[in-house]
UniProtKB/TrEMBL annotation:
<keyword id="KW-0558">Oxidation</keyword>
<dbReference type="GO" id="GO:1903189">
    <property type="term" value="P:glyoxal metabolic process"/>
</dbReference>
<dbReference type="InterPro" id="IPR050325">
    <property type="entry name" value="Prot/Nucl_acid_deglycase"/>
</dbReference>
<dbReference type="GO" id="GO:0046295">
    <property type="term" value="P:glycolate biosynthetic process"/>
</dbReference>
<dbReference type="Pfam" id="PF01965">
    <property type="entry name" value="DJ-1_PfpI"/>
</dbReference>
<dbReference type="GO" id="GO:0051896">
    <property type="term" value="P:regulation of phosphatidylinositol 3-kinase/protein kinase B signal transduction"/>
</dbReference>
<feature type="domain" description="DJ-1/PfpI">
    <location>
        <begin position="41"/>
        <end position="204"/>
    </location>
</feature>
<protein>
    <recommendedName>
        <fullName>DJ-1/PfpI domain-containing protein</fullName>
    </recommendedName>
</protein>
<dbReference type="GO" id="GO:0005634">
    <property type="term" value="C:nucleus"/>
</dbReference>
<dbReference type="GO" id="GO:0005739">
    <property type="term" value="C:mitochondrion"/>
</dbReference>
<keyword id="KW-0963">Cytoplasm</keyword>
<dbReference type="InterPro" id="IPR029062">
    <property type="entry name" value="Class_I_gatase-like"/>
</dbReference>
<dbReference type="InterPro" id="IPR002818">
    <property type="entry name" value="DJ-1/PfpI"/>
</dbReference>
<dbReference type="GO" id="GO:0006979">
    <property type="term" value="P:response to oxidative stress"/>
</dbReference>
<dbReference type="InterPro" id="IPR006287">
    <property type="entry name" value="DJ-1"/>
</dbReference>
Length: 222
């Protein structure tokens, strides 16, 4: 049968048609377009003292959604000790990607981490450029209050944060006591137990609600 279809007129015609279809669907160009055209990217900054649940939970869910996540170590590429002594290895030194373009910049919480990012001029530069470009900035726990305030990010926006920091926000921010708050290109959340809501909201913003709902279903969250 294979020999017949290969050498008969009818077989040659069918073979050519199949080849055209195959090339149209599976050519490298079409594969690149279909797979990468809608891919989003996120830079997650990793300082010493980051809250493990918030950091790992966010990175995990974003990657489940197909978002290209780069973990940038605030102090270089060496392993970072988080708030409960968990060691995490960054993908890159943050300095090496400071000028790169990302669809989202994400800040984990943790008091030590938020303090380090607040005092980091490099973090401030990255956040200000992201805000200037009108792209997403997402932060959780202490970071919305401490880091945003230090670098004057998202002023006059509605945000949430770890509740004990709300009085530190000052008059330039409006505190909203909800698990996750989005005001334009700013997404904020309150703490470790709200990390799923936080990450899913980032996914929804970057990839759409269908993708966010799919990821939530996969992890049995909804």
């Amino acid at each position: 049968m294979k020999f017949f279809y290969r050498h008969s007129v009818r077989g040659k015609t069918m073979l050519r048609n199949c080849q055209r279809i195959f090339l149209r669907i599976y050519s490298p160009k079409s594969l690149i377009h279909s797979h990468y055209s809608n891919m989003s990217s996120a830079l997650v900054i990793l300082p010493s003292g980051a809250e493990e649940i918030e950091f790992v939970g966010t990175v995990d869910l974003l990657r489940r959604a197909g978002i290209t996540v780069t973990v940038g170590g605030l102090d270089g590429k060496d392993p970072v000790k988080c708030s409960r002594d968990v060691l995490i290895v960054p993908d890159v030194d943050l300095k090496d990607v400071a000028k790169s373009q990302f669809d989202a910049i994400v800040l984990p919480g943790g008091l030590g981490a938020a303090k380090s990012m607040s005092e980091s001029s490099l973090t401030g530069e990255i956040l200000k450029n992201q805000e200037k470009e009108g792209k997403l900035i997402a932060a959780i726990c202490a970071s919305p209050a401490m880091v945003f305030k230090a670098h004057e990010i998202g002023q006059n926006k509605k945000i949430t944060c770890y509740p004990s920091f709300k009085d530190d926000l000052g008059s330039k921010y409006t505190f909203v006591d909800e698990k996750v708050v989005q005001d334009g290109q700013l997404i904020t959340s309150q703490g470790p137990s709200t990390v799923f809501d936080f990450a899913l909201k980032v996914i929804e913003h970057l990839c759409g609600k269908d993708k966010s709902d799919t990821v939530a279903k996969q992890i049995l969250y909804k």
